[in-house]
Amino acid sequence: MSSPHVRAFFDEATFTVSYVVSDPTTNRAAIIDPLLDYDPASGRTATKSADEIITYLQEADLRVDWIIETHVHADHLSGAPYLKRQTGAQIGIGSDVTAVQGVFKGIFNIEDLATDGGQFDHLFFDGESFSLGSIDARVIATPGHTPACVTYIIGDSAFVGDTLFMPDFGTARTDFPGGSAQALYHSIQKILGLPDDTRLFMCHDYKAPGRNAYAWETSVKEQRDSNIHINKAVSETAFIELREARDALLGMPKLILPSIQVNIRAGQLPDPEDNGIRYLKTPLDTL
Ligand SMILES: N[C@@H](CCC(=O)N[C@@H](CS)C(=O)NCC(=O)O)C(=O)O
Ligand SMILES: [Fe+2]
Fold this sequence. Notes:
By secondary structure, the protein is of the alpha/beta class. The chain has 7 helices and 15 strands. The strands form 3 sheets. A 6-stranded mixed beta sheet has the order 1-2-3-6-8-9, covered by helices on one side. Strands 10-11-12-13-14-15 form a 6-stranded mixed beta sheet. α4 crosses α6.
């Protein structure tokens, strides 16, 4: 099984891990879950994180074919459009993004939002194959955290998005619109059915009680043996109970409102109004 080179970029403001995955034979690359920096207090965006990726691409002499999202993120703005302008790569996401667009079009009252996923260059269907240079890759639908979550399996490495977190932290929340603890349980079973030594790359790390360094890489075997929410000793019913009990205690991510309205448009910011300024919307008493 081919092993891609994986370089992680950790954003401590949102605890998000973005990746550049590349084929050492051809130097073709994919960027996974890049972000646009956003300070909600000032309303300022910045490209510091995305520019770190650009610098790395230049240093490593990589050519980017894909900018791919594991889901419509609720905690950071996507840096995909900026990186597309810099690299010419195609932006892809799971095909069920249409369901997420349907739900949030109403909440944000964006009348002209197309809900067919057409803002993205490519929609990946469950089971679809693609390639990264000489490395075979495929996509599996892994809904639960959101309806459109997918896992990208590139050679021996799987980018699981928000499904599993590191074994000592557990799993992703399932209380966003369209989320489902039962669906997440079944999606995680698909991931745990991959070969034991499959490298698994997380989308976030919040550390865990007793751990003082961030971490984002583990393996199928480690997750099956020791994930605190979903190891081999935990039944489906027990998982659903545990997940829903934890979800009931969680506040909304601090950037959920700005993130979702931008990310359902493949990361495009709203058009400027006639004074040249762009505005985001805040629906009151809705989430
Ligand atoms: N405190 C973070 C929380 C972000 C959050 O809710 N993350 C989601 C993934 S988008 C999650 O699954 N968290 C799991 C948990 O906190 O148990 C923020 O405000 O951004
Ligand atoms: Fe998420």
